[in-house]
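Table 4 source record.
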Amino acid sequence: MAKAWQERLDRLRAVIERDVGRGDYYGLVLKVGRGGETVFEEAIGAADGEGERPLTVDDVFSIFSVTKAFTNILVLKAIEEGRFALTTKVRDMLPEFAGLPREDATYYHLLTHTAGMPGVWTPRPGMYLDRLADLYDAVIENVHGVVPPGERCDYSPLVNHVLMGMTLVRHDPKGRDYRTLLREDLFEPLGMTSTSMGLREDLRARHVQPDMRGTVPIKHLSRDMEGDHALFESPHTESPHVGCASTAGDLWRFAEMLRRGGELDGARILSPRMIQVARQVHTGDMPNELYKAAHLRAGWPVAPAYMGLGFNVRGTRVVNHQLGTLTSPETFGNYGAGSTLLWVDPQLDVSFAACSAGVMTQTANIERFQKLSDLVVSAMI
């Protein structure tokens, strides 16, 4: 049995090496566990297109929208602590969030991407995207509801998590800024020692500088330094939707907390019940409007959004999906644009975390991670 398992993991490695060799992406760090035991942890390929810097398992990546997973968890934690509820209207916590139809949106709508606002990448063209207060002010002024909350699933690249991040800061009993709140309430308890909001200075030497390869539609400007995507290089970034850096190993620890029902090494972040509710599909058959367009361009059938409370869920239909087609329907996780993925399969007891270099387009990334996810679970024999 062990030999068959190893042969299938060898196939997983060979497929990654082949795809890197033909230039699909530069390299990948992947960590997989079953029942809490590591079964695969490797760095394959390079950090750069020239292949001059081989990846290592300790490399630090800009994880893009996997940052949202951390914001989501802290919101669910605040709900468990009774500071507000899934049914609380956002305007009750943030009075500036006024005007119909958006003012009827609740935190449930933000977490499920059904708040009725358009999926904008920036609230104002050309602005710096590296400070929570500025992002919040621009969202309040410029992003308004287009449909009543609950009627449509528009994946929110930025707005929902700016609102949730500001809620956490304004109503934090200790009066902390967002970077401190993340560190003290999530990263330190989980032993995620190589994870930070903004690129912490001691992580810089291990950082894989993102190569967008023309796949991201906007610039990520920082007031701290020059460059189209300097937000990912600054230690002062405070962007609850996209600003964190981490390693595959730290993301695996985060996934392990989820797999274990909200606890890791004695640190309880959430209750098992909250995770059970959060990993259910809450969007019915509604498509994800962002991915609907990508699916249509690729000639794929339009798939349901399969959104949980802050998680992507694999769902019951066999469709083009980053979380695979052989994974269990209740598999849940989070992704970062063209590069990063973590998931947990509760039925198979598997946790998966991957960070890659060389950002891929939406559909190519879906195909890549669907294939790798299926290869992983087919090895669980």
